[in-house]
Specification:
434 residues; mainly alpha; two-stranded antiparallel sheet; 21 helices; 2 strands
Length: 434
């Protein structure tokens, strides 16, 4: 290893721990900048343009996550009240963590740093929710985080879109996207969060800014045509109806801005000889017939190959490291340099049925706590119920998005924010969730 890396990397890690401890807002900004935003340039630029490797097998975001992990451990050890609250999710969290460590350890002798390296790239970001939970433990601290999770993300993604358009041209469509799906999803989540924050009085109402942002956000989501993002948005809206946060009467109140936005988007698309309804219909065909869409058919082919590995190692999977040699294309013996495009398939391949069960237990446990808080404890949460609504909705979104992709970063921060709002409250419903 380069001597400069040997010296600078430990210093970077120590600095990350100190920053994570004393400057949590700055840490969240850095985590978003290096965890979410680099993928914004993956669609149209060469890999070197958005590569954040800093040497020693680390990416820039890893330094932030390691700093977060250390601060989480320190604060859990030092705070009795926090340990008491975490008991309600301790068993599934610790069981899943222990299984992850076992899957790392079993392959270290075979694959070396590749084993913890793959864990780092695929699962390590799950701890970010605990960082928000332990650091944003007062109402004021949580409010201070809201502009970062909403407006900062929205304006940054729109600015990167403009930069991309200037540098590479303004052609658009399924073969010429501006943003990666994870970045498009992050922008959409930030915009919806901004609306809900205003609804609950967590941020000042600014209808003009909300309407002005709705147009470019909606336009980018449509023209980039990430069907995974469309599906997530439909699921989130359905979720809001299910928990009665959104009603038909409220949609009628929003009719004028919605119609204006749709008309403006349609005009731009028609100017470029693209019919909005026809375009959405054509892109949505994969939902009902995957064989008619090359991308969907390709993804299903990957899953079929992955299941050959799953059937060979059903209980514990193959562990971390060596994944690319494990999945092959039909009729060949050559490894595919491709991620299986599903957190569920990935988890079955790497962690086996046991790992998938532990992950689902972990997610369902958190979901149960959030749901009971929304259903039975709204009066205790007051305006902070908005955090819990978003946390529960985005926990659902993460796992819908995970049907066809890996984990993304921003949603877990919102989940942590919802748990932070619950923490410290005396709520029978949440206590009973045990």
């Amino acid at each position: 290893m380069d001597p400069f890396i040997l010296i600078s990397l430990p210093l970077a890690l120590i600095s990350a721990i100190l920053v994570s401890y004393y400057f949590p807002k700055l840490t969240v900004i850095g985590y978003i900048v290096f965890g979410v935003f680099p993928r914004a340039f993956s669609e149209r630029f060469d890999y070197e343009f958005y590569d954040t490797a800093i040497g020693g097998g680390f990416n820039a975001v890893d330094v932030f996550i390691i700093g977060m992990a250390c601060v989480i451990a320190i604060k859990i050890l030092r705070t009795k009240g926090l340990r008491r609250f975490l008991r309600i999710i301790a068993f599934p969290s610790l069981a899943f963590l222990l299984w992850l460590l076992i899957e790392i350890a079993r392959n270290v002798t075979t694959y070396g740093l590749s084993s913890p390296g793959e864990f780092r790239g695929r699962y390590f970001m799950l701890i970010s929710l605990f960082y928000v939970l332990v650091n944003f433990d007062t109402e004021k601290k949580r409010r201070d985080l809201l502009p970062i999770l909403s407006l900062f993300v929205i304006y940054s993604v729109l600015a990167m879109t403009i930069f991309t358009g200037i540098m590479t041209g303004w052609d658009y469509g399924p073969e010429n996207r501006f943003m990666h799906s994870s970045v498009s999803l992050a922008m959409s989540e930030a915009f919806l969060a901004y609306i809900i924050f205003q609804k609950y009085g967590l941020m000042s109402k600014n209808l003009l800014q909300t309407f002005a942002l709705s147009f470019p956000v909606f336009l980018l989501v449509i023209v980039d045509s990430h069907r995974s993002v469309w599906l997530c948005l439909v699921v989130f809206v359905a979720f809001l109806f299910f928990i009665k946060e959104l009603r038909v009467s409220k949609i009628f109140k929003l009719a004028i801005p919605l119609v204006v936005t749709l008309v403006l988007v349609s005009m731009i698309l028609e100017k470029n000889r693209m019919d909005l309804v026809g375009y959405i219909s054509e892109r949505s065909i994969a939902y009902v017939d995957y064989e008619e869409d090359p991308t969907s058919a390709w993804r299903v082919a990957i899953w079929i190959n992955a299941f050959e590995v799953i059937l060979q190692y059903p209980l514990a999977g193959i562990g971390f490291g060596g994944h690319w040699e494990a999945i092959t294309m039909p009729g060949t013996t050559e490894g595919m340099n491709l991620f299986p495009h599903s957190i569920y398939i990935m988890t079955l391949v790497k962690l086996g049925v046991i790992g998938l069960i532990l992950y689902l237990w972990y997610v369902l446990r958190i979901g149960k706590i959030l749901y009971r808080a929304v259903e039975t404890c709204g009066d205790f949460l007051h305006i902070e119920k908005g955090y819990v609504v978003l946390a529960l909705g985005y926990l659902l979104v993460i796992n819908v998005y995970g049907l066809v992709y890996g984990f993304e970063h921003l949603s877990w921060l919102f989940v942590g924010l919802g748990l932070a709002a619950i923490k410290g409250k005396t709520m029978t419903g949440v206590t009973d969730a045990r």
